Amino acid sequence: MDITQTVPLVADLDAELMAAYQPLARRLALILHDTDDAQDMAQAAFARALERRHRFRGGDARAWLYTIGIRLALNEVRRRRRLVALDRAPEPEWAMASQPDLWVALGELDPQHRAALVLSTLDGYTHAEIAAMLGVREGTVSSWLSRSKERLRTILGDER
């Protein structure tokens, strides 16, 4: 492969990563339940993706960036749990102004379950795609989604 074929691919990947950056930060805010931490994780994921762009083998660049970001975020959550039980950060104004009950309810979910729910509901990824992103089995994702939806229905008072 000559260099003229490589340059447009790198530019296309960079453009796709840039387009996915802000949506990733919003998804991470739902997972981490903290907008500042989400911005930090999105930035770290973006930097890591740029550093490792040579490893990208084609396909969905957004999913690749989301995978990096979500794994970083979940690792951070696990690290914090080991260190110290942290006080909850104040709820962000934008979330409280639009859907405060939903925001609080999402905070009650395990971060991995929140991640699966966000990827499925907001981004439309399949169970298989989410499983690959989170490094778990497809059946695990199905179980997480089912339990998360049921938990949200219970918390929000929508018992069916």
Specify the biggest β-sheet: none
Class computed from helices, strands and strand pairing = mainly alpha
Q: Kindly provide the radius of gyration, computed on alpha-carbon positions and rounded to a whole number of angstroms.
A: 17 Å
Q: With helices defined by DSSP (H or I, 4 residues minimum), what is the helix count?
A: 8
Question: Which fold name fills CATH's third level, the topology?
Answer: Butyryl-CoA Dehydrogenase, subunit A, domain 3
- In the CATH scheme, the class would be Mainly Alpha
Q: How would you spell out the order of helices and strands? A: HHHHHHHH
Beta content: under 5%
Helicity, as a percent range: over 70%
| Structural domains: how many | 1
Number of strands: 0
The low-confidence parts are 1-8
Quickly describe the structure:
This protein has 160 residues and is an all-alpha fold. It has eight helices and no strands.
Structure, described:
There is one protein chain. Helices cover 76% and strands 0% of the residues. It is an all-alpha fold. It has a single domain (3-156), classed as Butyryl-CoA Dehydrogenase, subunit A, domain 3. The protein is globular and about 50 Å long.
Summarize the SSE layout with pairings.
Blueprint lengths: L2 H30 L2 H17 L9 H23 L9 H6 L1 H8 L3 H11 L5 H8 L3 H19 L4
Helix pairs in contact: 1-2, 1-3, 1-6, 2-3, 3-7, 5-8, 6-7, 6-8, 7-8
Which key features would you list for this structure?
160 residues; mainly alpha; Butyryl-CoA Dehydrogenase, subunit A, domain 3; 8 helices; 76% helix; 0% strand; globular; disordered N terminus
